[in-house]
Specification:
Blueprint (H helix, E strand, L loop, with lengths): L4 H8 L3 H8 L6 H14 L5 H6 L6 E6 L5 H16 L3 E6 L4 H13 L4 E4 L10 H5 L4 E4 L9 E5 L1 H14 L5 E5 L5 H16 L9 E3 L4 H12 L7 E4 L2 H13 L9 E5 L3 H5 L5 E4 L2 H16 L9 E4 L2 E3 L16
Parallel strand pairs: 1-2, 1-3, 3-4, 4-5, 5-11, 6-7, 6-8, 8-9, 9-10
Antiparallel strand pairs: 10-12
Helix pairs in contact: 1-2, 1-3, 5-13, 8-9, 10-11
């Protein structure tokens, strides 16, 4: 038998009107709020449990749970998602988890209580199953970029390993062999895939993989800056560096200018992600461009299918192909062939 609001009132010894006020977003006393939240967790109560189970009632509201919304990467994806959902007649509610598993779970639980019809989420690195309440209430979920928590959910991602392979292969084809990488945090699948692409192409072409050229970063501006500084302190410096995300590239380019490193004459620089910086700096940067609009559109299309009851291919993982955008930041180290006899 489904848990009702009366059960919550009985468990908390509060009036049904107080429970209803809290469930509809009203203000109740802090001590009552905590009693209600504890009872809801204990009993497994959801306001629209019956209606949601039968999928006969809709709110036309979608929950978006993301990391840092101010990054150009996330902002572009969310903008496209919101635009497409609006065309389909859905409104959007946003929440940022900041890589905090407890916070992410609270946001998802809140969205479930409010009766969202679906959820699109970027992953967190804790491995915590923060989407459990959505799964229990059979709310469709699409995860962007990686599904590292092992959730039984649909996932739309970019082939990061393939993108890294492409950009480093471009360096090799230009004659570079001493190629460094500023990598991201090990707990992120996207980071591990980019490193995997770097290692694979270096091995395929027989280029030396030097431990001192593999700089640990964390996808932040500071770690990109520090990475270039460390590389430039080496006695044997690399001729090229692959910076594996946009924020680190911002820091890397700041270090390049502060250390008076000439690009590409002294150091060729390539980056994963193609945003404004790539064409604003001189020389313009060679980058991997992710199909962010396509990722957003694909995620919305997949979520919409699930909300219409089509689970014929569940769970599905869709991998999109990035492209290498060649500009001016890579020097050719190839020796010109001598002509004539």
């Amino acid at each position: 038998m489904a848990v009702t609001i009366k059960d919550v009132a009985r468990e908390t010894n509060l009036a049904i009107s107080t429970i209803s006020k809290y469930m509809n977003g009203g203000t109740v006393r802090p001590e009552n709020r905590e009693r209600i939240k504890e009872a809801v967790r204990k009993l497994g109560y959801s306001p629209n449990h019956t209606a949601r189970g039968l999928r006969t009632s809709r709110t036309y509201m979608i929950g978006l749970v993301t990391g840092k919304m101010f990054s150009p990467h996330t902002a572009r994806i969310l903008s496209e998602i919101e635009k497409k959902l609006r065309l389909l007649g859905y409104s959007v509610t946003f929440a940022t988890h900041e890589e905090n598993g407890i916070q992410a779970k609270e946001y998802v639980d809140y969205m479930v209580e409010r009766g969202v019809d679906g959820i699109i989420s970027t992953p967190i690195g804790t491995g915590q199953d923060y989407l459990k309440s959505a799964a229990e209430q059979k709310i469709p979920v699409v995860i962007l970029e990686e599904n590292s928590a092992g959730n039984q959910a649909d996932c739309v991602q970019v082939d990061c390993s393939g993108g890294a392979y492409l950009i480093v292969e471009h360096l090799i084809e230009k004659g570079h062999r001493e190629i460094a990488v500023i990598k991201g945090p090990d707990y992120k699948l996207t980071s591990r895939e980019r490193l995997r692409g770097y290692l694979r192409v270096m091995e395929d072409y027989g280029c030396p993989i030097r431990e001192e050229y593999m700089i640990q970063g964390d996808f932040s501006y500071k770690s990109g800056y520090e990475g270039i500084r460390r590389l430039w302190e080496l006695e044997k410096k690399p001729t090229a560096v692959f910076v594996s995300n946009y924020d680190m590239c911002l820091g890397a380019m700041a270090a390049v200018y502060n250390l008076n490193i000439r690009v590409p004459e002294e150091l060729s620089v390539v980056s994963f992600d193609d945003f404004e910086l790539s064409v604003m700096v001189r020389p313009r940067l060679t980058t991997v461009r992710q199909p962010l609009e396509q990722m957003a559109d694909t995620a919305v299309d997949l979520l919409y299918r699930r909300m219409q009851g089509d689970y014929s291919d569940f769970p599905r993982k869709i991998r999109l192909k990035p492209e290498c955008v060649c500009r001016d930041s890579v020097k050719s180290c190839l020796f010109p062939q001598n002509g004539g006899a």
